Amino acid sequence: MSAEDMIQSDMWYSGPSFLMENEGKWPQMPIDLIIEREDPEVKAVTAVDVSTEDDNVTQWMHRFSSWTKLVKIVCWILRWPRMLKSRNYQNNRSISVKEWKYAEMVIFKYIQNQSFCSEVDSLLNEQPVKKSSPLIKLDPIIKDGVIRVGGRLKRSKISDEAKHPIILPKNHHVTVLVLRYFHFITGHSGVEHTLGAIRQRFWPMGGRVNLKSVIHRCVQCRKMTAPTLQQKMSDLPADRVKSAIPPFTNVGVDCFGPFYVRQGRSSVKRYGIIFTCLNIRAVHQEV
Asked: Residue 243: inside a domain, yes or no?
């Protein structure tokens, strides 16, 4: 269309006129434009829709952002069978250390069975893990149903947890909670110090990379390491930029010293004074 026809036409403002009528009065598509699926010129497109669903327990764990809160809730859940068996069970008492450790082991067993299912079956049957397993370099062992790092530290005098730390799966939500918890109890320390504290009990897969991600997302660490604001300096005063006035009209004065000089048989102090021209930066000194 030309410019004149475009200005006079209502097509660009209200669209074609048949849109204002019922759909039965709309023009039909020509039969010649309908492409049949059997046409060899038409490329067949195949789409596969795959939906993955996590189990309810994994989805429930993602609702927690704190490791201590997750363990505490699991402790209360594990108390429920005891309450049903014993009517005299005191449910209002505080969580004991034994209950806390048992709840932690239940969580670790569950996430390991989800992430290292074949490795758990092999170790329970006293068979070596497959060479394609990501745990092959850690010489894994299983103790109390939990996979731990093997190694050659059996004769060392460190604790058993440090000898054989619990293996945590990579990029798991529980692993992130554990890393976040140790980062907090170590006083928001750096990567190496926090990772050293973690490996006294746990061995997270890809721990350094995941820990860097946790520290990078830590709000308090980002506040402490944020660069300070730099204020822009104001314009120079007129005394510094005028060139028509004589030197030393406007000066800056400062003292320096003392210097010890000999005067007869005694030692006396002498100070120096420096005059700096604010315009041409000439310097004059006196004693």
From this structure: yes
